[in-house]
Amino acid sequence: MSRQSGSTVARLCVTNAKGGTGKTTVAVNVAGALNERGRDVLFVDLDPQGNATEALGLVESYDAQPPTLFDVLTSADQRSSIADLIVDHDEMDVVPSNIDMLQVEHELTIADLVARVQHDDSIDIDPETLSDLSLNVTPDSVSGAHALDVLDEALAVVEDDYDYVVIDSPPFYGKLTDAGIYASQNILVPALTEASSERAIELLIDQMAALEGQTGITVNTLGVVANRVEKTNEDETMLSWLGEVFEEFPIWEVRKRVALQRAFTAGSSIFQYEESVDMESVFLDVATELDRQFGLLDEEVPA
Ligand SMILES: Nc1ncnc2c1ncn2[C@@H]1O[C@H](COP(=O)(O)OP(=O)(O)OP(=O)(O)O)[C@@H](O)[C@H]1O
Ligand SMILES: [Mg+2]
């Protein structure tokens, strides 16, 4: 299992650039299932929309004043203040998103350009001039050939207390999503069982190859969560298409269930939600398989 920075913590990023595929639902409920198995989870809401932050009942954090996750990701000297952002939830600890996160993509794009001009002698652009276009980026804060290591660095400060870091990613490909995937190097992919998912999965595969080429990492696919599955012909066709494309990987099926939306609104995973939902067993299967893939299966699960 590939990990960054010698990290011994299992990090995974739930990602698919197509909007509304169930990233947040899957991330929250996989985190809930891991907690159910006795694992300590740090949940990171990397999406500027803050849906997971809201779904975990932490909407006040979304509106909190700086320093926020924005500062952690964009200022090299603020990485360790991630420790001050962690909020308790019954099932997990959470690094909430914040309204300021809407500006992160711009900052990380500038940081990436600064990294490029500093590492490519054929480009005659002053990094100082570029960084003036940002709020927080400075040439000396961007040391490597890319600027995608910002979350990786921040997680290293706090993750020793946890078994897992689960990252919910935004619905677009950009530097923020890349930083989430770079930090984890492991992706869990939710996909709707409808025809439009084919394009989304093809783009995902291309994007992972591009990120690997840019950074030299290998992105490991943990599995696919077919989501909002119903019993139509289209669902059947898409399930078999996913089965062919992800032949070597586990594929789980989460049915369409209103209770998943209700738990979301109630601020918890389905495991803490008052109403029993038959999808619990699916998310527990995902959690068990993650334990297996991360080599944690033999570790005692507390009663
Ligand atoms: N299996 C399901 N059954 C019923 N509703 C679901 C299911 N999965 C997700 N939903 C609902 O679909 C909507 C979109 O799901 P979610 O927010 O998890 O997707 P997302 O990929 O995170 O979206 P975005 O791309 O905006 O981040 C939410 O209202 C959620 O409650
Ligand atoms: Mg989401």
Task: Summarize the structure in words.
By secondary structure, the protein is of the alpha/beta class. The chain has one domain (10-99, 152-293): P-loop containing nucleotide triphosphate hydrolases (Rossmann fold, 3-Layer(aba) Sandwich), CATH 3.40.50.300. The chain is built from 13 helices and eight strands. The chain has helices at 23-36, 51-55, 59-62, 69-74, 82-85, 104-119, 127-131, 150-158, 175-184, 197-215, 233-245, 258-266, 280-293, and strands at residues 10-14, 41-45, 87-88, 93-95, 164-168, 186-192, 220-229, 251-255. Strands 3-4-2-5-1-6-7-8 form an eight-stranded mixed β-sheet, with helices on both faces. Helix 11 links the parallel strand 7 and strand 8 (251-255). It is globular. The two termini are 27 Å apart. It binds adenosine-5'-triphosphate (ATP) and magnesium ion. Adenosine-5'-triphosphate is lined by residues 19-25, 47, 49, 51, 171, 227-228, 254, 256-257, 260-261, 264.
Could you outline the blueprint of secondary structure elements for this entry?
Elements lengths: L9 E5 L8 H14 L4 E5 L5 H5 L3 H4 L6 H6 L7 H4 L1 E2 L4 E3 L8 H16 L7 H5 L18 H9 L5 E5 L6 H10 L1 E7 L4 H19 L4 E10 L3 H13 L5 E5 L2 H9 L13 H14 L10
Parallel strand pairs: 1-5, 1-6, 2-4, 2-5, 6-7, 7-8
Antiparallel strand pairs: 3-4
Adenosine-5'-triphosphate (ATP) binds next to α1, β7 and α12.
